[in-house]
Amino acid sequence: xxxxxxxxxxxxxxxxxxxxxxxxxxxxxxxxxxxxxxxxxxxxxxxxxxxxxxxxxxxxxxxxxxxxxxxxxxxxxxxxxxxxxxxxxxxxxxxxxxxxxxxxxxxxxxxxxxxxxxxxxxxxxxxxxxxxxxxxxxxxxxxxxxxxxxxxxxxxxxxxxxxxxxxxxxxxxxxxxxxxxxxxxxxxxxxxxxxxxxxxxxxxxxxxxxxx
Length: 212
Hints:
Blueprint: H1 6-26, E1 31-34, H2 38-54, E2 77-83, E3 86-94, H3 103-108, E4 119-126, H4 136-151, E5 156-161, H5 163-171, E6 176-178, E7 183-185, E8 188-196, H6 197-209
Parallel strand pairs: 4-5
Antiparallel strand pairs: 1-2, 2-3, 3-4, 5-8, 6-8, 7-8
């Protein structure tokens, strides 16, 4: 594969930005915003709790206040999708801070390159009534995360996923690099992965455009 020129890189990123905007719009009536208030963050943690308990990923006794949260939440950007007054989807982005680990690095004992230039995406949840075969809300949530990652100047992201979800990401055209063996995490075996967003853009746009 040849080296991408600066002009080609900007063209690909602009194409990805435009496509992400379409995917976000397609998630309507769900609208995305940041969880800036204490009330919004509490709603995020309570949806996460309901999801992990319903799926058997966590014991309710581990979250006696009915909220699922950890030490990364205070520094995270929380994206939410709302259908009117109902919280439909959440995702968490953690950006690097020198001398600290990202959530995926801490959970899986890996180091993700380029150090200091990777955004960590986790806790992506769509409430059950907003799931559908076309994954409109889930894709909209990922697209909104892409917009925020791009706005902060990053083009590499990381996270963890079960093999079935990694396969789904690859079907979308995402360039996924698995970084380690599977470990039991949130109720199933998951693998840490790295995704080069720039390298993924052309294929992802081409594949998903045919479904819209």
